[in-house]
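[09:14] KT: can someone run the structure on this one? pasting the chain below
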Amino acid sequence: MDARVPLHAEPSLNEAEVRARVAGARVATLATIDPDGRPNLVPVTFVLDGDTLYTAVDHKPKTTRALKRLANVERDPRVTLLVHSYAEDWDELWWCRLRGVARVTDGAPQAFGVKYEQYRGRLPDGPVIAVAVENWTGWSAKQGEG
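[09:31] RB: done, structure tokens below
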């Protein structure tokens, strides 16, 4: 292991750096809280609009549209999202964590079609989770670089 990589993960990215990394990322992991108080994790695509992150249920095959993440948000709106990048070169490692309050709504933003080629011409048509991000933190092996 490279001695320059810190062995702790204290936040080192400022909010602007976190926002930039998140905006450029393609996937995040959404954590909701299940009825037993345990985290429920699921990978999601997303778009940012200011302090709001949107993730939508799309047309990919699913066994149901009554997804656990939607029920969890309706019951307890506290959520966390993790965006990260792994590389064999540990100097390139980084992660960003967003915490906020979510609500279920309808109508995916047009930005999905801009960010993801798969949604051009066919925006996600299912429920949308809108997260009002309250806390932006992150860490990078390259301290202070955005």
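[09:33] KT: thanks! The chain has one domain: 15-137.
[09:34] RB: yep, looked fine to me
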